[in-house]
Amino acid sequence: MADNNEQLHAMRHSLAHILATSVQHLWPEAKFGVGPVVENGFYYDIDLGDTKLSEEDFAKIETEMHKVIDSNVAFERFEMPIDEAITRAQQANQPYKVELLNDLKRAGTTMAKDLNADELGTIAEVGEAQVDNVSFYKDGDFTDLCRGPHVESTGKVGAFKLHRVSGAYWRGKVENAQMQRIYGLAFATPKELRQHLDMLEEAKKRDHRKLGQELDLFLFSDMVGSGLPLFTPRGTVLREQLTAFSNELRERYDFQKVWIPHMTKKDLYQASGHWAKFSDELFLVKSQETSDELVLKPMNCPHHTRIYASQSRSYRDLPVRYLETTTIYRDEKTGELGGLNRVRSATQDDSHVFCRPDQIETEINQLLDCANELYRTVDLKLRVRLSYRDDSDAYLGAPELWQSAQEQLKNAVVANKLDYFEQDGEAAFYGPKIDFMATDAIGREHQLATVQLDFVQPERFGLDYIAEDGSKQQPVMIHSALLGSIERFLSVYIEHTAGKFPVWVAPEQIRLISVNQEDVTVNFANDIRRTAKRLGLRVEVDNTNESVGKKIRASELAKVPYTVVIGEKEITSQQVTPRIRKDMAVQPEPQAITIDEFLKTVAHEAKSRTHKTSLKG
């Protein structure tokens, strides 16, 4: 598997070069930035001056790329002294390459801290000392600064398709020139590419932004601001039902609800270490009464430490478990905002455990149980990423504490027989994590729930408890969120279900359709609605002056689980024959059922959080 992944990476990297080669053939004055491999393909950042590309240009570029591929020329690697490389880039009028080379020459290995991963993976081998030589790859008449890897020749790059083009600031900084980023999809075989393209077509139909509008779930307003979603009554039902389930799972293990304000003095985050790491992501708040420097809270854990520290704790008091579903605020870059997936106000089902070291295993096991039950209920398949620190200086705390924490998390995952993989560099700055990766209905993987072990913040805040021997000891802090960001979870869940929510979470569980607007019919429907509401059900009555067929179609478009037509027959018999949404239905179709039995059955389905109807034929 590793060899296959490495080969596919080389194919994708080679295609980035072939894209650049083809663009140079078509637009000889093009100036090139970087062209890394990304998930499912590659991209290249290119400056074409006043020429603006669109998807209409893709056919022309792809034709040229196929010419380069069909030529099957070798990718030839060579090196040259960095000063010679700078001169060469200047002569070729490639200012972005000149900038990268000059940075490498000036900084050597320290340069790695200022380059993003894409640049570092594209330009040169960085050694322990200042860079003397840099590597290039040549394919035909195109030569690019690059450290590889590449396939043997241009004819061995698999299947590809140009995907989209967007604007991108050079090196991700808004003060720099804006380039054009051309994305391509690439796979080892045409069949795999076709499967991915089919998945993308299905993803368009399921786009949560499209469904959110069609199903009246959420919206954005220019008067409110980018990345600040507003949820309608129907969308709010989704939020509240999911939150209630998350809370219910943790309250089984004696988590207690707390509440904190939405702003704080920046001193809190200076003490926690967040200010040094994330100060440029915070919304600053100015007081007209005091000189306090305030921020909108970007996370909740430092606040919860203050509640823990508000009284003396004995070893007998631990674990202390806090639970809060609350909104945090981060000043995300405008270009990175996208529907509910990336927002500036994100609501977390956050919780924190303060426990003794000997209680860690039990607490983690309980949180793993909660996550497994939640994702099993929402029908999302899980695997686990063990997110560790890397060798950089981006983390707080002693290395031995990190090693201990990482081992304990892995032991818990192995003991629970979870499917897992390990990845360095994905930890929080204060500790390693168990990240839950959920696979949706069309095969995409998303990081959602998390459990994080933290030895650092208890130390920074001086948290303690009185041990059995009378000494003061430091508790361990365990961070967890089952849904994670509720907004991000909803972006995944809406697309996973294609808006066909199971009864328990559906904003509207039953729609009653009157065959006419006569008082006796409408009153009977409203009586059913009142009875249903007493059972906790969400029911709407459609008594508009439309045909029954149009009303049924409207209910189907709204993806309501149960649609019931109310007319003289139903009034006389006191029975209904519900229409069941196709994804919930079982065969044979249900027969007429008393209204009381129907409502009680739906209420039971909601309470048990089932995905299929339990109505019998």
Write the topology of this structure:
Elements: H1 2-26, E1 31-32, E2 37-38, E3 41-47, H2 58-71, E4 76-81, H3 82-91, H4 95-107, H5 117-123, E5 133-139, E6 142-145, E7 159-169, E8 178-187, H6 190-206, H7 208-214, E9 218-219, E10 230-231, H8 233-251, E11 256-257, E12 263-265, H9 266-272, H10 274-278, E13 284-286, E14 293-296, H11 301-308, E15 320-329, E16 345-355, H12 360-377, E17 381-388, H13 399-415, E18 420-424, E19 433-439, E20 445-454, H14 456-460, E21 465-466, E22 472-473, E23 476-485, H15 486-497, E24 510-514, H16 519-534, E25 539-542, H17 548-557, E26 562-566, H18 568-573, E27 575-576, E28 579-580, E29 593-594, H19 595-608
Parallel strand pairs: 11-15, 17-18, 24-25, 24-26
Antiparallel strand pairs: 1-3, 2-3, 3-8, 4-5, 5-6, 7-8, 9-10, 12-14, 13-14, 15-16, 16-23, 17-19, 19-20, 20-23, 21-22, 26-28, 27-29
What would you note in describing this structure?
There is one protein chain. Strands 11-15-16-23-20-19-17-18 form an eight-stranded mixed sheet. 37% of the residues are buried. Mean pLDDT is 90; it is low at 109-129. Strand 21 and strand 22 form a beta hairpin. The protein has 617 residues and is an alpha+beta fold. The protein is globular, with a radius of gyration of 29 Å. It starts with a helix and ends in a 9-residue tail after the last helix. It has three domains: 2-201, Threonyl-trna Synthetase, Chain A, domain 2 (Threonyl-tRNA Synthetase, Chain A, domain 2, 2-Layer Sandwich), CATH 3.30.980.10; 236-259 and 298-497, 2-Layer Sandwich (BirA Bifunctional Protein, domain 2); 510-608, 3-Layer(aba) Sandwich (Rossmann fold), CATH 3.40.50. Helix 1 packs across helix 2 (58-71) and helix 12 (360-377) packs across helix 13.
